[in-house]
Amino acid sequence: MEDTIAAIATAQGEGGIGIIRISGNESKKILEKVFVPKYLNNNESFSNKQLYYGHIVDSSSNEIIDEVLAVYMKGPSTYTTEDIVEINCHGSNVSLRKTLSLVLRNGAKLAEKGEFTKRAFLNGRIDLSQAEAVIDLIKAKTDKSFEIALSQMEGKLSIKVRELREIIMDILVNVTVNLDYPDEDIEEVTYDELIKSLKLINDELDKLLITADTGRIIKDGLKVTIVGKPNVGKSSLMNALLKESRAIVTEIPGTTRDTIEEFLSINNIPVKLTDTAGIRNTKDKIEKIGIEKSKESFNQADLIIFMIDGSKDLTSEDYEIIEYLKNRKSIVLLNKSDIGTKIEESYIKSIMPRAYIIKTAIKNEIGIKEIENKISELVYGGEVKQQDSMLISNVRHKDLLEKTKKSICDAIDMAERMEALDFIEVDIKRSWELLGEIIGETVTDDIIDRVFERFCLGK
Length: 459
Hints:
The protein is of the alpha/beta class. Helix content is 46%, strand content 18%. The longest helix has 25 residues, at 156-180.
């Protein structure tokens, strides 16, 4: 924290602008050493938050490195709460590299991954959950995942966690006072009151945890695998959902011999879509490898789309796939419904009770919208409002909330058995500490380091 740090803050590659960011007590002095402003007298100093035009110059050789715009921002009203300088260079790798090298030679230290945001956390401007939201914001794949990250960065989750910690602390204080001062004139904590208070906390934890799977999918993407026997329309479905010809479509069974993966957005949900080789008995060695990969993809998918040729009776190959899927959440498409249907929906439902059934004619784009809407419905589960709900999208947060819930449930269980308050106090305190780990108030240095290792340089 004593060092002044610097890094390239923009992405690698050519661009109109590239930014060098400097943070620390020596930021302004370093700027004065490397930057020659065009319209600033020698006896003038850089004003706070004013943009200056000039050149980056290596004073040892008088070499002009780049024509730039530079700004000095005085702490604590900055991203890190420290003095910050940003130099807007031309977006050339050469310019950025040479400018950064000059800044480092004049007293700055190369920043570690996420060190700017880490300083913002350590200096108290943001908490740990807000810091984690920064990297989620950068990596957001859709408008919705960006919205969730932005909501967390603004502190919505932090506020909720702090509210819960405050309630738990009130309970903990009452329990501790009754234990430490049993003879004083203090209102006695009854087990009924304790159970009631703990159950209210447990309900709030459930409300947060129920959003975790939805939040993870919106953040990381829904893994959807298309399966079925050869020539039922899997590749046509992939092309229809992608709205482009990505997979080869022919009347010849076995055309797709390997899994094809593509990313797309369905109703603002990021989806990793996998088209698999048709599952059938074959002597072709290459096709066999593709079929084995198809079977492997079953275990990795969040959702299976199982395609059946609805114009024909089920075959042994269909039944083999059904055996894999009968206990999995899946969407069954009775395809080619435009040329007649020989398979009853009720029969499919009887052998695949967890399946959702849609009649389609993919070549004519019949049923595509219904598939997209069903995927949205399954992701949001009908319980989470897409517009304004706070979603838990971070795996670390989910794990800590689950551990908190276990501690609260253990405390409730002991209170219902009227066990000693000493034992109940341990679990209540543990739940308070676990929630503190989410926002970084009871977290170890090791966890903090692991969080910021995920960041890119310059952020």
